[in-house]
Amino acid sequence: MLQQTSNPEDIDKLAKLTSFKNIYDFTITYNRHKNKYGMRLKDFPESYGIYDSSMNYRYDPDYYYKFRPQRLRVRYLIAGFFMFIFICKARVRNVEEFDRQKRMEQRNMQNVEIDEVYGKYGKYTLYNQFDKPVNEKNFINKDSYVVFWYDAKMKNYLTFLDFLIKRKFIQGNVRAVLIVDRIEYMTNIEKIKSESRDEKLKSQMNVMLKKQFTDTEKLVKAFDNSSSQFQNEEVNKENVIELDLKKSFFYVLTPEGKIIDCAKIYSFLHEENIHKRIMAKISKDIDDKMTKSIQEK
Predict the structure, then answer these.
(1) Do residues 253 and 139 touch, judged by C-beta distance below 8 A?
(2) Residue-range domains of the chain with CATH
């Protein structure tokens, strides 16, 4: 019928009887660009009002956007921004609380480690560059505190030596000893030390070797107590322990050979606080001795 007639009235009559009416009306009357920026059905020209009905929008995929055009809500945008800031700050607070609890846990573990050895006499056997054995009797009664470091990269050991050299006032003499587990390391360090031009650093640096003994050598060493300095009645054998230098990051010993500080797990320590912690322990021990001597007088 459409092919046989071109009369607009016949086309309009046919459109009212068929679904072609919907396509025809939307093609002519609907303007997506104007509708997006706020037009409503009441804003359409009156000449098209007779064609507007709910059926026109029943199968239209843009139905929602025609009746409810979307706009940028500034208040929702601001609310979302503040919600994002709140969530970020909450995550930061959670991380800080986790770090605080972890530090407390690590500090408690450190205190347990120190309590196990605090006040006990350290027993050890090391070897110098000439393969000569050195034990506690070589360090005792030297009027100096001994710090044993087991540091593979030497980073903290060298920074500690630099700390001792540059600090103007140090309460008590401190002797820092680097422990290595291979003769090759010791040879290389001694070579670097001999080539160094820093005389203060060379005078402070001490390197000792911790040998690996076989089971037979360990048994012989366990029964051989002739080299121990603590073979007297004043020191109880229960208060003497073998220093586990390879599994500990550092030990701090008094001139009498007593342990006043240690750390077995390096990851628990912050590098910038290690030196201050050691010197604080040494200063406290010196102050306690002075207070005790005054009270005895």
Answers:
(1) yes
(2) 8-67 (no CATH), 119-296 (3.40.30.10)
Instruction: Mark out the alpha helices in the chain (DSSP H runs).
Output: 8-17, 20-29, 32-36, 63-67, 74-117, 136-139, 155-166, 183-195, 199-204, 215-223, 271-296
**pTM over 0.70, yes/no:** no
Output the 3-class SS for 145-208.
Answer: EEEEECCCCCHHHHHHHHHHHHCCCCCCCEEEEEEECCHHHHHHHHHHHHHCCCHHHHHHCEEE
pLDDT surpasses 90 at 87: yes
Highest mean pLDDT among 1-10, 77-86, 176-185, 201-210: 77-86
CA angle, 277 as apex, 188 and 165 as ends, to 5°? 50
Token code pair at residue 174:
């401190």
Query: Tokens in use for 246?
Result: 């390879």
